[in-house]
């Protein structure tokens, strides 16, 4: 009986862990965006803000599964964008990106092409 359960449960476990990590990444990204908005409001300087400890990785404590970085202003991002890159380059959702205008996107670590909107929605919902 245990062998039958293990046959079905074991392949699903890594997928569930990956989904949980993606949700951690999305949560960290929104926290970092909130931090960036507060920092921009408190300062009249438009310089790129650094993400302080606790905002620079996901999960915030322990071993980093994702690393966050703040990118400067461009014509597309509305003032800044924040990227979350997985430690595992083979992650199916790749790099998560959130701009100051709220535009969300994903792309693979090795390739610059952005994902389709349905794939982005699936990644951001943890699927």
What's the arrangement of secondary structure elements?
Elements: H1 2-42, E1 57-58, E2 66-71, E3 81-86, E4 95-99, E5 104-107, H2 117-124
Antiparallel strand pairs: 1-2, 2-3, 3-4, 4-5
GO biological process, one term: type IV pilus assembly
Organism: Caballeronia mineralivorans PML1(12)
Protein name: Pilus assembly protein PilE
Overall, the morphology is globular
Extended strand count = 5
Encode the helix/strand succession as letters.
Answer: HEEEEEH
- Give the terminus-to-terminus CA distance: 29 Å
Quaternary arrangement of the chains shown?
A: single chain
Q: Count of DSSP helices?
A: 2
Provide the spatial order of strands within the biggest beta sheet: 1-2-3-4-5
**Roughly what fraction of the amino acids lie in strands?**
15-25%
> Percentage of helical residues?
25-40%
Give the overall pLDDT as a whole number. Answer: 83
**Class from secondary-structure proportions:** alpha+beta
Count of spatially separate domains: 1
Rounded to an integer in angstroms, the radius of gyration calculated over CA atoms is 17 Å
Low-confidence runs of at least 5 consecutive residues:
none
Reported for the largest beta sheet, the result is: 5 strands, antiparallel
């Amino acid at each position: 009986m245990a062998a039958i359960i293990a046959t079905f449960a074991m392949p699903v476990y890594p997928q569930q862990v990956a989904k949980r990590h993606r949700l951690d990444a999305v949560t960290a990204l929104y926290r970092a965006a909130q931090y960036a908005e507060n920092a921009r409001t408190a300062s009249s300087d438009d310089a790129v803000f650094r993400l302080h400890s606790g905002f620079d990785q996901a999960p915030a404590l322990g071993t980093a599964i994702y690393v966050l970085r703040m990118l400067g202003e461009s014509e597309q991002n509305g003032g800044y964008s924040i990227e979350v890159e997985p430690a595992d380059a083979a992650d199916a959702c790749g790099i998560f990106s959130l701009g100051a205008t709220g535009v969300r996107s994903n792309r693979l670590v090795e390739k610059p092409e952005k994902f389709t909107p349905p794939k982005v929605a699936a990644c951001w919902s943890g699927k």
